[in-house]
Amino acid sequence: MDARFYDGLTAQSHAAEVALDGDQLRIQADGREFVWRLKDLSVEIEADQARVSNRRERDARLVLPVGEWTPLAGDALSDKVSARRHREYWLVGGLTAVAVGVVLFVTVGVPALSGPVARATPVSMEERMGDNINGQMSHVFPACQNSAGQRVLAQLGDRIAAEADTPFDIRVRAVDAPMVNAFAMPGGRIMVTGELIRQAATPDELSAVIAHEIAHVEQRHVMQAVWRNFGVGMLLDLVVGGGTGAGQQAVILAGQASELSYSRAAEAEADARGQALLHADGLSSQGMAPFFERLAGKGHEVDEAAEFMNSHPDSSRRARVARAAARPGRSALTPDEWRLVKTTCGVEDSESPVDSLKRRFRIGDHDARADERIEVRPH
Amino acid sequence: MTDILAEGAPEDVGEPLVFSTTLEPSRFLGLSLKNGLLNLITLTLYRFWGKTEVRHRVWKGVRLNDEAFEYTGRGVELFIGFLLAAVVLGIPFLAVVFAIQFGAEWMAIFLFPLYIALPWLWGFGIFTAFRYMASRTTWRGIRFRLKGSAVNYGWLFLGIGMLDGVTMGWFRPQGERMLAERIWDEVRFGDRRIRFRMARSQREGIYGPFAIGWVGSIIGFIIAIFVFGAAIVATGDFQSTAGGPPSEPGILFTLTVYGVMLALSPFALLIWAPYHAALLRSIAAGVSVDQATFRLDVHALSLWWLTVSNLFLLLITLGFLMPWVQARTARYLIKRLKADGTARLNLAQQAERGPGSGEGLADAFGFSAI
To answer: Which terminus of chain B has fewer Cβ atoms in its 10 Å neighbourhood, N or C?
Structure first.
């Protein structure tokens, strides 16, 4: 017999004789006898070798050719294999149950909790968070320099917010940024980009956007999103670890898709509530639909089929809903105020994004002085 | 503990070391599919058990003097390591996030220690992962172990990373050797010491191949910038935004960029292949046990082909074939691993059991040797 025995104490190889004796394996190695019960054994077969180990002598090994092990042991250890498989079924079942729990928590639990948690978040805490974010954002998107225009914008924000049920001071300001966008930050600050002001054709369009953002603040959507992202992000990061495998990326993407669907729901809610705020002040809400339509026409649109990829609902659809709910009313701004607002960021209609970026980063001969930048404070 | 080199024992007492492998990568196809599917339905939580199974099968396919290695680790040990890491990393991370988001603005200074701590922790995690793996690797029933300090390795890892940045990468080759030394010089087979001799490692030059990769990358970047610039101008993307707000890049553009990067990756890998091959040879040359020294006959072209084909296999299967790729990489290396001289491995005495769990930090940082 060409068997080798290792006693688990040293790496010395011992020539061994092995015999089956009922439910025991008798191993003779260098004058010593080892008796192993079959029920304690497990065997690994690899190529031409069988390696036998004993759970009662965890480090000892018996290695012998497969051709000698198979006739010796027959199927004496076959129940070991089925027991191992059985354990694996339980493991996979348990892990799958945990995974289902995680999915349910991410898709149902976290979004359901985010509303109450956002409402329970102390106002002062949200304001501090807003201050911190504002500090960071101000470096990236500085306030535009025309203080008269900023004042008109801030007053417009105050007027619309007067009807909103919110503990926060609404502080609207125009910022220099090469994109059409408006953001509501935690704590009531709202940023409207110069590009958005440039794209708005009428005061009603601009007031609709601001009303939409105020509705976000009122509904505490920002804080809800913060908690949702926090909960989902933490949980999924925890589950997948730092791995970059396809499976791990798929889990993260699924989490983001889940977040986007809630984000779209919040946008639709802010559209409706924004219009209601305008109506409450007797202002026209007819600017919302044309603005969305213009966005759709400017190539900012995503295909409806691809809407699930986007944080905002499809603009055409939003326009349809907004048009159905629109009501006539006063214009939000006088012609003089509107002219002031349009020049808040000094953006001419002919200015290209390249010129805008040059001006933004003070490249070339544009005379922008940092000390002229202002921040609109509550009135 | 004994060390033959230190004692100058006679050479003829030991045994020559011959590596061989019974690994057949195609036999990992079933395991690849099983692990991939179970990872999907368990949100990747099965990965600890899947990884354990892969190691188990790779280890037993590698033989030294016709005796197979054995991996004795268990999935649950990795899972416990993962839970421990979640607590160790998660609590400070949460504390910092909350302090920065909801506290005063000055609390952002907490980020600075984090920037230092994370690379240190990464190195710490790598070392402890190797320590765990060594303790779960046996040959002839005797465990390996990794002594040394994970704390010090973390500092070395951090320091090398910083020097790497300062020298624009030129410290990296020597840094890799230093990290390898810190690992290999602390490995034991039972109580037998494995050594890493820096002088022997340095005899295998790596700076020439590194220069090829470094200079080639700079040239490649310059060409890429010109090509991308020309492509943007040619497609008119630049002009189309004039007079209107800049639009976000379309999905087609993004896919094109990734496609080009993918198409260029074989070239990037090719210019770095001489360095990667030289580094592997250099590290293997530094390792010795008793009178036995090692050679890894890895050359640039074969290594490049291995890497490119592995990448291709992983891409077209979205990572499913990772176990297959790991098996063929192990087979590639073992078939080229040679030893000269002899070692008295039969004198090795059993080592202690090692850590009860493992690799949680390494998992958190996405590091895995296999």
So the answer is: N
| Nearest Cβ partner for A240 among B44, B102, B141 | B44
Q: For residue B336, is pLDDT > 90?
A: yes
B141 vs A6: CB contact, 8 Å cut-off? yes
User: Which pTM was predicted?
Assistant: 0.79
Closest approach of B222 to chain A, Cα-based (Å): 23
Helix runs in chain A, H state only: 66-73, 78-104, 110-120, 123-140, 147-161, 194-199, 203-218, 221-240, 246-280, 288-297, 315-325, 335-342, 353-360
Q: Identify the CA nearest to B281 among candidates B218, B348, B333.
A: B333
Scan for tokens 């990290």, then name that residue: B179
ipTM of the complex: 0.83
Cβ burial, residue B236 (10 Å; 0-12/13-18/19+): exposed
Task: Inspect the interface and report whether the beta carbons of A241 and B143 lie closer than 8 Å.
Answer: no
Closest chain A C-alpha to B8 CA, distance in angstroms: 21
Nearest-angstrom CA–CA distance, A309 and A330 = 37
Structure token pair of residue A280: 């409450």
Q: What is the mean pLDDT of residues A247-266?
A: 73
Assigned token pair, B52: 């354990």
Nearest of A111, A56, A112, A320 to residue A229 by alpha carbon: A111
Which residue of chain B has the CA closest to A243? B366
Q: State percent of chain B over pLDDT 70.
A: 90
Residues A147-164 have pLDDT tens digits of 899 999 999 999 999 989
Sheet holding B19-21, edge to edge: B19-21, B62-64, B67-71, B137-139, B142-146, B187-189, B192-196, B287-289, B292-296, B337-340
CB B328 within 8 A of CB B321: no
Helices (H) and strands (E) in chain B, counts: 14, 12
Question: Model confidence over B209-233: pLDDT tens digits?
Answer: 999 999 999 998 898 888 877 877 7
Q: In what helix (H) or strand (E) does residue B165 lie, and over which residues does it extend?
A: helix B150-166
Window 15-74 of A, Cβ < 8 Å to B: 44, 46-47, 49, 51, 59-61, 63
Phi and psi torsions of B22, nearest 5°? -110, 15
- Minimum distance, in Å, between the CA of residue A281 and any CA atom of chain B: 32
pLDDT tens, position by position, A76-119:
777 777 888 899 999 999 999 999 998 898 888 888 898 899 88
pLDDT tens-digit series, residues A192-211: 999 889 888 899 999 999 99
